[in-house]
Write a structure and sequence with these properties.
Length: about 900
């Protein structure tokens, strides 16, 4: 094997050289960067050691897997127990399809987090901290005597913190969690500590219960371990030696009723500069020690495996109003914190600021904000200073009233935040249609900025992690960015919601974590198996599949328990009791139902989601090799429910919206018929009629449920209708968002819904990433890349036969990027690169009995010629030719 066959991109639990791992048997992953045809893995060997000089077959002192026959580019560690806080080194080699070994990889590392008994710190807080005074500052001096070899901080806060060392910001965190399942973060701070006095500074915020913020108590926990080159070590913990004071925030009203965050009014005179640096000498208060960890309510600490990253964005333009106010335009909507540097502050001068989505001269305080109060205020001290609030919002414009000086663009910025995805350009798409390309970019950046400490509903109002929103965004991030850890964490959190609130009924929370605790939506619960399955197809994450399976089974049982014995339909599916979600949401906001007839106990959408949940439960059971009886249970129940749907909800031509035991609706919505197509429930005799109805309806599904419409168009092979739906700027959809100047996907379409009043439109989110799902279907339908079977090592490439003249791009997989470029004239000219260790079926439109592969004419349905390596078969499928290929680059041309 050549050096190109050496494993690269080594990852532990989907991260490169992570610290703070609490999985006792972490999964190790790799890939090989080769385009050699038929290149695949046949065996693997992994060595794990306590030091890099022990990474040899004879010296590995932790674990030697031995040579194992496996095609999977991943292995679960199954050596001796791993020690808390320790770093481990590992290498891997693989054997290829001819059983030839590669060179050993370069070393990679992972570091374990702390176990429960390793915590020495106490939970502390400022006495009297509550929601009316949520911001506190803490400091502690640390004397460093000697050369630091390694330093780690382990930190947790209820709810959020900013950590600095010697005045330099080190980290912001962490993800919101219930206190009995509290997250902590592990940080490498070796480079931040110097000889002599060092100061740990923390700004802590507790906002109380709200959307995405569970009920808890204010608290802070930190443990710093310093290892010196001379073998000494010291540990610093939160205890009664810390000092605290109230932050410089002034009491203010909440921004809205959802997030429990106050309008941030900061008095720059209340906290002297340098408070978090050495040499600061002011008498602060003693902290309140709540108790040694664990203490009520913090029962358990769980390592957080996701990060939020930050970047600075300056305005694209500035406009000075006659009133003296200055409006800064950042060109697009971003989630972040406005930062303003004042070079000549006047002591006591109050500066008013307002963020927003729209402006008519001044920045609007209502349009697009969902009734969120987007104001800020800053009271200056004399001289140079910086206004920097704690919490983020989504906005495009920032208005500053009476700043006291002529601010330049360089003095104003947004500290933009988003989840630290592996590669924000891991996937790419370019086509012959510029409007389509703009839609793709709109979806890409919306998905990126919809990822914060979780998959947020919107960065402006709720900021909570709704199950359907999270599923929709996760569909995009796993493909567009190669993201894994945020999706994995979100799925696990919703699994926890089942055990916390719904174990007896088989449901999941609609939003989790959350201040109002127990809240569900029927279709959200039904959609969970689909999310688990889609995530697994892309990631090959068997551990999450195993974790989620009992809940998937419970969801299937939840559906089955509601089946009426007389009709065989799901009737009045329990959920959303006493609110607008009861018995089935159909779509959201309400105007996005487009007149769906909900006045029936058996809703077609609920029943079709049930059909799909049972189908996905079976797929997952098969992937996990569950007993045949379990697989048969899901299969039989799906078939029975599907037959009942056709019998009672299909009028012979179309699917109606609902029924009871005696009558049915006379309204055939796009929702009902698109879902029937997407789930494969339409009788063969009605497929064309149902498809025509769905296509001719244009856009009559909202951004929340639109992926099922896109799935329907994919399933029914209507690429021209797909392109038209995406690019028609005069009708509801993504192109119309662009036409109206939108730069982030919206919560609802605005142009084609007569019932949507101007006031209602103003109360809809204009930064709602759930609408970004269009990106995944562009990859699937127009680039033609689909994930097949039970993992991403089996692909299907099918360029469309209409709608576009050309497209190119790439999509990441666990084994590398799949690359596709095609153009159509009389036939298709397609070039495709299949990554290492992967197979694909390439389907190209053709009715000819011959095609050209790599300049060689090949007869269809004949054995491939010997000189065409990597090709297993060339088959006629009726209106297309299917070519089965392995790793490598291929050019296929049809007449």
């Amino acid at each position: 094997m050549s050096d190109r066959d050496r494993p690269i991109d080594l990852r532990t639990e989907y991260a490169q050289d992570p610290i703070g791992i609490d999985e006792p048997t972490p999964t190790l992953r790799w890939r090989v960067a080769t385009d050699r045809r038929d290149a695949r893995q046949s065996a693997v060997r992994v060595l794990v050691a306590s030091a890099p000089d022990r990474l040899t077959p004879r010296a590995a002192d932790v674990w030697d897997s031995g040579k194992r026959r496996s095609e999977r580019p991943a292995i679960e560690y199954d050596g001796p127990p791993l020690a808390a806080g320790c770093r481990y080194y590992w290498i891997v080699r693989v054997w290829d399809e001819a059983d030839r070994p590669s060179e050993w990889s370069q070393p990679a590392t992972w570091e374990m987090g702390l176990s429960a008994e390793d915590w020495e710190a106490s939970w502390i807080r400022r006495a009297g901290t509550d929601q009316s005074s949520p911001f506190s500052c803490f400091r502690r001096s640390v004397a460093v005597t000697g050369v630091v070899e390694r330093a780690r901080v382990y930190v947790s806060a209820s709810h959020q913190y900013v950590l600095s060392i010697n005045g330099d910001s080190v980290d912001r965190g962490q993800a919101f969690a219930y206190p009995d399942f509290q997250y902590y973060k592990a940080l490498d701070v070796t480079e931040h500590l110097g000889s002599g006095e060092n100061v740990l500074g923390i700004v802590h915020a507790y906002h109380g219960a709200g959307q995405g913020r569970p009920a808890s108590e204010p608290g802070l926990l930190l443990q710093l371990r310093i290892d010196f080159e001379d073998g000494r070590s010291t540990t610093v913990v939160t205890d009664d030696s810390w000092e605290t004071t109230a932050g410089p925030w002034v009491d203010a009203p909440l921004r809205n009723e959802e997030i429990a965050e106050p309008v941030e009014i900061i008095d720059g005179r209340q906290l002297s500069p340098g408070w978090d640096e050495p040499g600061y000498d002011v008498d602060w208060e003693s902290v309140e020690v709540v108790g040694d960890h664990p203490t009520d309510p913090w029962e358990r600490l769980v390592a957080q495996r996701r990060e939020v990253t930050h970047e600075t964005v300056h305005p694209e333009s500035v406009d000075r109003l006659d009133s003296g106010s200055i409006v800064f335009d950042f060109g697009r909507v971003y989630p972040g914190r406005p930062v303003v540097r004042f070079d000549a502050g006047t002591d006591g001068h109050r500066v008013e600021l307002r963020a927003g989505y729209h402006r008519d001269g001044a920045v609007s305080d209502t349009d697009g904000t969902q009734a969120t109060d987007m104001r800020y205020a800053y009271v200056q001290r004399g001289g140079v200073q910086e206004f920097r609030p704690f919490n983020y919002l989504g906005f495009r414009y920032l208005q500053i009233d009476d700043p006291g000086e002529s601010l330049s663009r360089e003095q104003v910025s947004i500290a933009v935040s988003h989840n630290a995805v592996p590669d924000r350009h891991a996937a790419a798409f370019d086509s012959s249609n510029p409007v389509l390309d703009d839609v793709v970019e709109l979806a890409r950046r919306s998905a990126l900025y919809g990822c914060q400490e979780g998959f947020v509903d919107t960065p402006t109002r709720e900021k909570g992690q709704f199950l359907m929103d999270a599923f929709n965004i996760s569909r995009v991030t796993t493909l567009a960015f190669g993201e894994r850890r945020l999706s994995r964490g979100a799925i696990r959190e919703f699994v926890r919601s089942h055990y916390r609130y719904w174990a007896a009924t088989g449901r999941l929370n609609a939003v989790y974590p959350n201040g109002d605790g127990k809240r569900d939506i029927p279709e959200f619960t039904e959609a969970f198996p689909e999310w688990v399955w889609r995530y697994y197809q892309v990631t090959d994450d068997r551990r999450v599949l195993e974790t989620a399976y009992p809940v998937v089974r419970a969801v299937a049982d939840y559906v089955v328990r509601h089946i009426d014995p007389d009709t065989g339909l799901v009737m009045t599916l329990s959920g959303g009791e006493g609110g607008p979600y009861e018995a089935g949401i159909v779509d959201w906001p309400p105007e996005m139902r487009y007149g769906y007839d909900r006045d029936w106990p058996a809703l077609t959408t609920v029943n079709l989601f049930g059909v799909n949940a049972l189908a996905r439960a079976r797929d997952i059971a098969v992937a996990l090799d569950r007993p045949r009886s379990e697989r048969a249970y899901f299969q039989d129940r799906r078939r029975q429910l599907e037959m009942a749907v056709v019998e009672h909800l299909h009028d012979g031509e179309l699917f109606v919206d609902g029924c009871d035991a005696h009558a049915s609706s006379d309204h055939a919505s796009q929702h009902a018929n698109a879902l029937a197509l997407a789930t494969g429930t339409v009788p063969a005799s009605s497929i064309e009629t149902v498809t025509d109805h769905v296509v001719n309806s244009g856009m009559q599904m909202g951004p929340m449920m639109v992926p099922w419409l896109l799935e329907a168009l994919q399933t029914s092979h209507r690429p021209a209708a797909f392109v038209e739906l995406l690019t028609d700027s005069t009708a509801d959809g993504w192109a119309n968002i662009l036409e109206q100047g939108g730069t982030f996907t919206w919560e609802s379409w605005h142009c084609g819904v007569d019932a949507l009043s101007e006031q209602a439109r103003r109360n809809r989110s204009e930064s709602h990433a759930m609408g970004a799902t269009v990106l995944t279907y562009v990859f699937r339908v127009l680039l033609g890349v689909r994930f097949e079977a039970h993992a991403d090592r089996q692909l299907r490439i099918r360029p469309p036969d209409a709608g576009l003249d050309a497209a190119s791009g790439h999509v990441p997989t666990e084994c590398g990027a799949v690359r596709v470029s095609w153009e159509r004239d009389h036939g298709i000219d397609l070039t495709v690169t299949i990554p290492w260790n992967t197979t694909a079926t390439v389907v190209v439109p053709s009715r000819s009995d011959r095609i050209v592969i790599d300049d060689t004419t090949v007869a269809v349905d004949q054995p491939s010629t010997p000189d065409l390596s990597g090709i297993d078969a060339v088959r006629d499928t009726g209106d297309a030719v299917a070519v089965d290929v392995t790793t490598g680059t291929y050019r296929i041309i049809t007449d």
